[in-house]
């Protein structure tokens, strides 16, 4: 079974079925072992036609290590499939409480430094 429990990481998210580019990316929470962000592009060419699909989202380290590759299906001479995979580390989600704690800590230290210098 796949573990989809949120793990505190986030990645850009987008799927386009007919383009190599996503014009608008949302954000998605990663789950389980997903620790990387993936940019996956699949281009299928047959004769004079070309179809490109693009996906952004979360991925496991194993998927990222699979890397890019080209495939020519058996028995087809004019068809090729190219899959490009680019990965980066996912971003940690910081909650508002965490941001408030950091802001309070910084403010406290600034006040401490200010009064120490007087």
Explained architecture:
It is found in: Secreted. Keywords: Secreted. This is UPAR/Ly6 domain-containing protein. Its main location: secreted. This protein has 118 residues and is an alpha+beta fold. It has one domain (6-93): CD59 (Ribbon), CATH 2.10.60.10. It contains two helices and seven strands, in the order E-E-E-E-H-E-E-E-H. The chain has helices at residues 61-66, 96-116; strands spanning 6-16, 26-31, 36-46, 49-59, 69-71, 79-89, 91-92. Strands 1, 2, 3, 4, 5, 6 and 7 form a seven-stranded antiparallel sheet that branches. The radius of gyration is 22 Å and the shape is elongated.
Write the layout of secondary structure elements.
Layout lengths: L5 E11 L9 E6 L4 E11 L2 E11 L1 H6 L2 E3 L7 E11 L1 E2 L3 H21 L2
Keyword list:
UPAR/Ly6 domain-containing protein, CNF-like_PLA2_Inhibitor, secreted, Snake_toxin-like_sf, 7-stranded antiparallel beta sheet, CD59, 7 strands, 2 helices, 23% helix, alpha+beta, 118 residues
CATH architecture: Ribbon
Q: Tell me the count of domains.
A: 1
Through-space gap between termini = 62 Å
**What portion of the residues fall into strands of 2 or more residues?**
over 45%
- Number-wise, the strands total 7
CATH topology: CD59
Fraction of helical residues: 10-25%
Shape: elongated
Work out the helix count.
2
Write a concise synopsis of the structure shown:
The protein has helices at 61-66, 96-116; strands at residues 6-16, 26-31, 36-46, 49-59, 69-71, 79-89, 91-92. The chain is α+β, with helices and mostly antiparallel strands and 118 residues long.
